């Protein structure tokens, strides 16, 4: 059985084309005629592959690569073996990504898993739903009354789009996604299993008796990971700002506002009524309590437990979370206190 190839190569590139594409600098007099056909990590690369090096701790392994070309920072170019063309750049990983995107453009394009064009006969679309031309709907999907979906959007198998939901153009709705009580912008990506717009779990008896009549508003260019859950608002809308990235298995409570270009790592939990400023970062498995404010461009490190407001540009870590430097000083003090003291042998000994 042949190895399955999920992404077909659109073209191969010469080293001269790589240099022109990425702006990397070859060695003086280097032969730029060799072709590259694919990409791989430098430890696994074979002749015909392009790779990159950005891991100083593994510098001792770079001379063993078999790649035809390697994007590398200038200070490490000396370690590239003779048979590998060192292409010097300040951002090796970004240059490698550009090369792969040129060779495998289909890897960046969302497509129907059923290779469907239009509405598959196995999907259930309510007569009152409005789909613009160019929408693809895979088998088993359900689209409710008054739902509106823009052109170029793909709705994956067994996904459910509830009544009145509006989805913009060029979106990707993965398999088994549910969307209710939501307005979604353009070029939004919802990975498989995401849950959008359901009522959240009440934290107390009063909340349990209060109808949640808000919505979820997801602005343009947002990406939401697999099995993430975003609860609809109760007193106001839950809003996910333009360009935000939300990881797999993230839980976002009701009435939360996530600012533009925020990044929230996998398994993070954001309590109800939290406000997160633009460009903030929240690490994986972090827990942010209810009714807190995370400031502009603040950074919450992974596994932090946030129980108080975080000012703009601050870096918080630990549980309970505190400013990173303060936490490191406290840890150093504790280590000094618990460190065993050497035995006192006395002067005469």
From TrEMBL:
Give the CC-aspect GO terms.
membrane
Q: Where is the UDP-3-O-[3-hydroxymyristoyl] glucosamine N-acyltransferase non-repeat region domain positioned along the sequence?
A: 34-101
SUPFAM superfamilies documented for this protein: Trimeric LpxA-like enzymes
Print the keywords alphabetically: Acyltransferase, Lipid A biosynthesis, Lipid biosynthesis, Lipid metabolism, Repeat, Transferase
Tell me the Pfam families matching this sequence.
Hexapep, LpxD
One GO term in the molecular function aspect is: N-acyltransferase activity
Mind listing the GO biological process terms from this record? lipid A biosynthetic process
What is the recorded name of this protein?
UDP-3-O-(3-hydroxymyristoyl) glucosamine N-acyltransferase LpxD
What organism, scientifically named, is this protein from? Answer: Methylocella silvestris (strain DSM 15510 / CIP 108128 / LMG 27833 / NCIMB 13906 / BL2)
């Amino acid at each position: 059985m042949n190895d399955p190839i999920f992404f077909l190569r659109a073209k191969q590139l010469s080293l001269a084309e790589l240099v022109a594409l990425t702006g990397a600098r070859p060695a003086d007099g280097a032969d730029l005629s060799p072709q590259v056909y694919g990409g791989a990590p430098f430890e696994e690369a074979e002749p015909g592959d392009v790779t990159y090096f950005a891991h100083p701790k593994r510098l001792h392994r770079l001379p063993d690569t078999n790649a035809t070309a390697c994007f590398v920072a200038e200070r490490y170019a000396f370690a590239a073996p003779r048979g590998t063309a060192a292409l010097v750049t300040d951002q090796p990983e970004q240059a490698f990504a550009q090369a792969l995107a040129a060779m495998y453009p289909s890897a960046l394009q969302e497509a129907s898993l059923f290779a469907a064009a239009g509405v598959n006969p196995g999907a259930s679309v309510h007569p009152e739903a409005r789909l613009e031309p160019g929408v693809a709907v895979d088998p088993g999907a359900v689209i409710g009354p008054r739902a509106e979906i823009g052109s170029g959007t793909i709705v994956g198998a067994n996904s459910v789009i509830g009544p009145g939901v509006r989805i913009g153009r060029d979106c990707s709705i993965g398999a088994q996604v549910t969307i209710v009580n939501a307005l979604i912008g353009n070029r939004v990506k919802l990975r498989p299993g995401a849950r959008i717009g359901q009522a959240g779990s009440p934290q107390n008896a009063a909340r349990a008796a209060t109808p949640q009549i808000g919505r979820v508003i997801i602005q343009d260019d947002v990406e939401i990971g697999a099995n993430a859950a975003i609860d609809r608002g109760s007193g106001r809308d839950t809003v996910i700002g333009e360009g935000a990235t939300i990881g797999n298995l993230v839980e976002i409570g009701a009435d939360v506002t996530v600012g533009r270009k925020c990044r929230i790592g996998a398994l993070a939990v954001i309590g109800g009524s939290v406000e997160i400023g633009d460009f903030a970062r929240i690490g994986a498995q972090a827990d942010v309590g209810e009714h807190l404010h995370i400031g502009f461009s603040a950074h919450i490190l992974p596994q932090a437990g946030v129980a108080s407001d975080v000012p703009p540009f601050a870096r918080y870590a630990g549980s309970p979370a505190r400013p990173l430097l303060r936490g490191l000083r406290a840890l150093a003090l504790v280590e000094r206190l618990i460190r065993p003291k050497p035995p006192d042998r006395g002067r005469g000994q």
